[in-house]
Amino acid sequence: MRKELSILIIIIFGLFLGLIALDLTFGDPDNTAMDDYFIQNGQEQAATNNIVTTIVFDYRGFDTLGESTVLFTAVIGVALMYRKLVKGDADENE
Amino acid sequence: MRMSKIVRFAADVLFGAIVIFGLYVIMHGHLTPGGGFQGGAIVATGAALVIVAHSYEEVIGMIKKAVLMAQESAGLVMFAGVALIAIGLGTTFFFNFLANSGSLFGMTVPFGPNPGELNTGGVLPLMNIAVGIEVWGGLAIVILYMLSGIGKKEEA
Is residue B74 within 8 angstroms of chain A, CB to CB? Predict the structure, then answer.
């Protein structure tokens, strides 16, 4: 009974996602002003051939600063969690 | 707990190649797919390989956690510092003051296909290097902490 119910739920959920996927369109956004600006001016303004790097590090530099801070905080959290796990290593971990 | 001699030798040989590939991905972040985050993760993978192949105690004798933590902090400070230099020069935060200047990383890039010139990009290569050393130190110290208990059960 439980197994049949699971299979039924999987089929219903799969149909749900499949019907949504059939209705999607890709590669034709309505507003392209910003994309066109980056593609036309990115290479001259940042002197970089890689437009993705230009956006990530130059136009959206604040976002990358936040990402770096998130990574830093995550490492601090892991270091705090594992602080006293190993015996004899406690002094160095602090 | 150490692995067999074959595994240790293979890890030692592969470590150099992994580190060089990771540094290549960091250095060419403004030309090819990849960048600081990806390259730093590749270098940290090499560190994970060495820690798994050798014992934790052997690796901790060579690398100090404080050094990796200082490296991570230095990367973040360098990233914010490069962005702050732009304010000192009278422009906005994160302004690309080295682009098209003719000095370090200052070659002009024409509109069109990628010729693959390394000496371009302004401050972007510097920021890639900063993020690279930050991710390298950060992920390596996370791996070092998480694998610090490896092989403990066999000894007890």
Answer: no
- Domains of chain B, by residue range, sit at 5-155
> What's the token pair of residue A81?
């969690």
CA quadruple B135, B140, B145, B151: dihedral sign: positive
**pLDDT for the residue numbered B130:** 93
Shortest Cα distance from B18 to chain A (angstroms)? 22
Which residue of chain B has the CA closest to A59?
B94
User: Is any Cβ of chain A less than 8 angstroms from the Cβ of B124?
Assistant: yes
Indicate the residue of B31, B111, B122 with minimum beta-carbon distance to A46.
B122
- pLDDT interval class at B148 (50, 70, 90): confident
The tens digit of pLDDT for each residue in A56-90 reads: 888 888 899 999 999 999 999 988 888 765 555 54
The predicted model gives B33-37 an average pLDDT of 87
Instruction: Measure in Å the smallest separation between the Cα of B63 and chain A Cα atoms.
Output: 12
